[in-house]
Amino acid sequence: MLIEAVIFDLDGVICHTDQFHYQAWKAVAGQLGIPFDEHINARLRGVSRMESLEIILEQSEKNYSQEEKEQLAGEKNRIYQSFLCKMTPTDLAPEVSRTLDVLRGMGLRLAIGSSSRNTALILHRLGLDELFDAVADGTQIKRSKPDPEVFLLAASLLGVRPSRALVVEDAAAGIQAAKAGGFPAAGIGGAAQILDVDFSIETIAELVPICIQGR
User: Fold this and answer.
1) Taking the model in full, what pTM does it have?
2) Which of 20, 40, 53, 115 is positioned for an S-S bond with 144, CB 3.0–4.6 A?
3) Helix axes 18-32, 49-57, angle to 10 degrees
4) What's the rounded Cα separation, in Å, for the pair 23 and 54?
5) Is 91 a catalytic residue?
6) Is 145 helix (H, G, I), strand (E, B) or coil?
């Protein structure tokens, strides 16, 4: 397997803002009187904001208009962004920073492939604005994961074939998207146990020997 590039999901791989998402959705659900817990939150991993809202609203007896849904999604994002704005480069794990530097030193092209519309803000807060050769995110796509659109866009921006760009994901929807797009996939965290992954890793540093073997 020839690897020329690595495409990273953002949340759960490069950084961890899961708790921010959870707290923001819990606040919105609380305003609506809808039950929300870690079990429901787990269903939101890797899916878009509006799709996440639809999952939460399954617990409601009320039917919401599209305008009301957009207002609720906007409120969630405002709460979430208030947490993001407190992030600093010290929130980036040293292992992540070292691994990215090593991969870049190997001549690999690096990209972000995230459904998040807050990708630019997160990268800025972590001091990663200039590190990646390409960024494909939720502001540029019409279909979120498990559709492969965001990864195909990232590969196009990098100028590499999908078969030569390793996708790193922590969510099942992301692994499904990678495989649907013809990408090799490395699963970390919960995604490491998915049968479709080409590589199961416990830490991001394990990408280095994988990429060395693929050079």
Assistant:
1) 0.86
2) 115
3) 40
4) 17
5) no
6) coil
Beta bridge pairs of residue 135: 112
The 8-class DSSP code of residue 63 comes to P
Q: Decide the pairing of beta strands 185-188 and 165-169.
A: parallel
| Backbone φ and ψ of 200, nearest 5° | -105, 120
- Catalytic one among 9, 101, 133, 170? 9
Strands 109-113 and 185-188: what pairing? Answer: unpaired
- How far is it, in rounded angstroms, from Cα 86 to Cα 8? 23
| Chain-centroid distance, C-alpha 189 | 13
Nearest CA to 199 out of 183, 180, 212, 186 is that of 186
Tell me the C-alpha distance between 9 and 111, whole Å.
Answer: 9
Give tens-digit pLDDT for 30-69.
Answer: 999 999 998 899 888 767 788 899 999 998 989 999 999 9
Return the amino acid letter for 71: Q
